Structure formats: C-alpha cells, structure tokens
Amino acid sequence: MRICIYPGTFDPITNGHLDVATRASRLFDKLIIAVADNPEKGPLFTVAERVRLIQENVASLGNVEVDSFSGLLVDFARSKGAIALIRGLRALSDFEFEFQMALMNRHLDPEIETIFVMTKDAYSYTSSRLVKQVSQFGADLAPFVPANVLRALEAKKRAGESAPSGSSD
User: What ranges do the domains of the chain cover?
Assistant: First the structure.
C-alpha cells in the first residue's frame, strides 16, 4: 500500500489545503493528513479541534484519515509506513522554505520522498495566518475556508469578545 503523509498545522484548514488533500488522495492508496502539535506557533484551535474540522471535510474521501503528531515528521511517517510526504506550494516564496525542509527530511530518511503540489490559482494567496487575521475584522471568508471552519472562526471571535479584557481602565 502506498501511503502518503500531508503534514501541517492546519490552523485552520483552508480550501487550498483541501484542494491539495483531494488531489493527493488520487495519487496514493492512503493519505494521512497529519496535524502538527506545535504550541510554539500559538494556534487558535486545539489539535483536537483541528483534527475534527479536517475530518468533517474529508469524510467523503474514502482513503483519507486524519491524525496528529509531535516531534519529527519523518519519525511519524516511518511509524505509519509512509513512502512520501506531500507539500502544497502557493507561490515561489513557499518553495525556499519547503525545499530546505525536504532536504532535511531526505537527510533524516532518504526512503521518504517529498512531493510538491501547486495549489489552484484561486487559493494561491490564501494562508491560515491570513484567514485568522482577516477573520478578526469581519471579512467574508466563505471563498477561502469550508463552512464548518467559518462557523468555528466566528465562535472563537464571539468567545474572545465576551472574554474579560483583563484591563481595569
């Protein structure tokens, strides 16, 4: 069985991520979307929330599962029997970072290939970071994220507005 890992923070998952996942699922027998547990990035959503949001969006893809990991990606990939990692590229600026990561992963495990997939043009400027930033200002995010993510972002925003500010001014 040819298994591929699609790793990322996915905080939150975007339509661009889902496009890459859907296309990757056609290339491999099994695709594992691997949600990175990286608290240093200060994620908006917990790992469990991100896993759930992704699962709801890939349920119709029969050969896709969602898992989470911490530590080295190649260790996780090895534990799952993966032969490849898939990485989405939006623009040339993504390539430099992704190329460095691919070379390090190849050094750590030369048996695991890294495959780059270009996102559709419509998603070339969309990132989770930008989605979170513009969501705070009430922008229409429907073209960029699935409906369940849109609802989750709105809920986080409402919860933040109702939280005490911590200031006594």
Answer: 3-161
Express each pLDDT in 73-116 by its tens digit. 999 999 999 999 999 988 777 788 889 999 999 999 999 999 99
CATH 3.40.50.620: does it fit domain 3-161?
yes
- Residue among 87, 90, 132, 135 flagged as catalytic: 90
β-strand partners of 84: 4, 113
Q: Indicate if 128 belongs to the active site.
A: yes
User: 25, 50, 128, 135: which is the annotated catalytic residue?
Assistant: 128
Active site residue 17: yes
